[in-house]
Design brief:
Blueprint (H helix, E strand, L loop, with lengths): L11 E2 L3 E2 L12 H9 L11 E2 L2 H14 L7 E4 L12 H12 L5 E6 L5 H4 L9 H4 E6 L3 H11 L6 E6 L17 E5 L11 H14 L2 E6 L28
Parallel strand pairs: 1-4, 4-5, 5-6, 6-7, 7-8, 8-9
Antiparallel strand pairs: 2-3
């Protein structure tokens, strides 16, 4: 659950703990919940357990950071695919340990994706900027449709980070970016997969790709509904420039 991620837009996945609860329709077919039920990890939901992962798992980011030193490359670490870092049911001491781990690994770009951006300001440490977390943390929020984007993006953008990004996945309604300077740095687009996947029309992906191109937003087309073939005109996978990465180092 922690290394060589199969998620196309990251290098590694790190889960400091497992467990979450549904907060919006985008969670209805959560693969994290399905995996947890399949393997008997934790009960999902507000009264369910939040289970910390092993000490060996927590050492993985230190190993990735050490391996990256002097290479000129910055591995991306998605944290967390089986939880939400800003879930208020997760113990605060675990989150503090996570902040300390991030501070100790400036060689990594940490991608924190949440459906709870309203919790971020109250949960990041007072030393967020002093110890450089804002320089190697990419903050993202999931926006499954226009309503979620209009609620979550204005909150996310107020917290300083190296990169601000939107995960338009699962895309269960149309989403358009607003004109003007208030734009995310990066947007990931993806249809739902798995049993009962809700359909993402090709036009939704084409429209948001067009908005990104017009607004100077890096665009990453992850997948169509049920992982169908991605049409050629949508197949674009860009990465943003972080505070540490020069344009020459981009893939």
């Amino acid at each position: 659950m922690a290394e060589n991620s199969k998620i196309e837009w990251t290098d590694h996945t790190f889960n400091p703990w497992i467990g979450c609860q549904k907060v919006s329709p985008g969670c209805d077919h959560s693969y994290a919940e399905s995996l947890s039920k399949r393997y008997g990890w934790v009960e999902w939901g507000p009264h369910g357990e939040r289970k910390r992962t092993s000490a060996a798992n927590w050492r993985k980011p230190l190993q990735w950071a050490k391996a990256a030193r002097g290479t000129g490359k910055r591995p991306r670490v998605f944290c967390a695919s089986l939880a939400d870092v800003f879930d208020n049911q997760a113990p605060g001491e675990w989150r503090l340990e996570l902040w300390n781990l991030i501070a100790l690994t400036p060689e990594l770009d940490w991608l924190l994706l949440t459906k709870r951006p309203e919790n971020i300001a109250g949960m990041i440490p007072s030393w967020w900027e002093k110890f450089g977390l804002a320089d190697h943390v990419w903050l993202g929020t999931t926006c499954e449709d226009q309503g979620a984007y209009d609620r979550r993006w204005p909150i996310l953008r107020t917290v300083r980070a190296a990169v601000h990004f939107i995960s338009y996945e699962p895309a269960i309604g149309p989403l358009r970016l607003h004109n003007g300077p208030d734009q995310p740095d990066w947007l990931i687009c993806g249809g739902e997969s798995g049993h009962g996947a809700r359909h993402m029309p090709e036009a939704w992906a084409a429209d948001i790709k067009s908005d990104c191109e017009r607004g100077g937003v890096y665009f990453f087309m992850k997948q169509m509904t049920s992982k169908a073939a991605i049409p050629e005109h949508l197949m674009l996978r860009e990465f943003p420039l972080s505070a540490h990465v020069s344009e020459e180092q981009q893939p």
